[in-house]
Amino acid sequence: MKSYPSTTSAQISGRISIASFPTQSSQMLALRLILIIYLTSTVISYAPRALNRASFVREGVKGLVGVSAASVVGLVGRPQAVIASEEVDRVTTRMGGLLEKYQDSRGGWIINSPSGWNKFDGEPGAYDVKWQDLVTPNENIKVTSTPVTGEISSIGKLGSISDLGPKLAAKRNAKLISSSDRLTDGIQFYTFEFEVEATKAHQFLQLSVSKGKIWSLDANAVGAERWEKRKAIYENVLASFMPKLS
Predict the structure, then answer these.
(1) What is the mean pLDDT of residues 145-161?
(2) Is the pLDDT score of 68 beyond 70?
(3) Which residues of 147-166 are buried (b: 16+ CB within 10 A; e: fewer)?
(4) What global pTM score does this model have?
(5) Phi/psi at 143 (nearest 5 deg)?
(6) Which of 232, 210, 230 is nearest to 220 (CA)?
(7) Which stretch of 24-28, 48-52, 201-205 has the lowest confidence by average pLDDT?
């Protein structure tokens, strides 16, 4: 798998004017921009096809400048966030054979993936591993990782779940349906559910930080009926993911 250089706070803050964010510290701004740049680059499927990856990321960062959390919340609303207060176990159910255990020895992570789905390895800049339904390709699950600096030790370092959710929804032109926070084996996970009304796409996005990387796990379907059919499977897939082997 091709490796990518770590993104540093200095590189990010050097590109964006800190004066545009008078209420945030320079350090926290830099850390949050790392997440925004990374996550914007994982949602190309929601952007017009004519817009290439580089320009989509660039426009996503430009759109963040001058946008306050309050104004974003005004557009998409603020659903109730569920905050983790104690550790919960990793989910290991196979759902009667619908899921199967997958272990990535090179990346050092485990997951229960859908049985019988096509598996694709490593498209540089897009994902580490992807599973795709045989009949309906837009029903898929992707695991993506990107290096970050050592000061980002958990996803909480990049902001609260109630702060990040609306911003990520705005980048997708999506509605934030729900968000939840859990702690499993010492790792903090943020999970968001989005709906893109223009395309009828639904998505779970789960974020965590481990071993110097941000780990993104997204599960997608198009149409309310298909989403309801897949939702329980996706929830168990997300809850089974662990970005370490022990």
Answers:
(1) 95
(2) no
(3) ebbeebeebbbbbebbebbb
(4) 0.70
(5) -110, 125
(6) 230
(7) 48-52
Enter the tokens of residue 183.
Answer: 């702690």
Q: Check if the beta carbon of residue 206 is closer than 8 Å to that of residue 191.
A: yes
| 30-59: average pLDDT | 43
Q: Give me the DSSP letters along 2-68.
A: ---PPB-HHHHHHHS-GGG-TTS-HHHHHHHHHHHHHHHTT-GGGS-TTS-HHHHHHHHHHHHTT--
Joined tokens for residue 146: 């990107």
The most distant pair of C-alpha atoms in the chain lies apart, rounded to whole Å, by 55
Nearest 5°: phi and psi at 31?
-65, -40
Residue with tokens 């990535």: 104
Mean pLDDT of 107-133: 95
Please check the confidence at residue 129 and state whether its pLDDT lies above 90: yes
127 band by pLDDT with thresholds 50, 70 and 90: very high
Q: Which amino acid is at 58?
A: R
CA distance linking residue 209 with residue 160, whole number of Å: 14
Domains of the chain: 1-246 (3.40.1000.10)
- According to the per-residue pLDDT averaged within each range, which of 16-20, 78-82, 101-105 is highest? 101-105
- Phi/psi at 158 (5° precision): -95, 0
Provide the b/e sequence for 100-119 (b: ≥16 CB within 10 Å).
eebebeebbbbbbbbeebee
**Nearest one of 52, 54, 70 to 62, comparing CA atoms:** 54
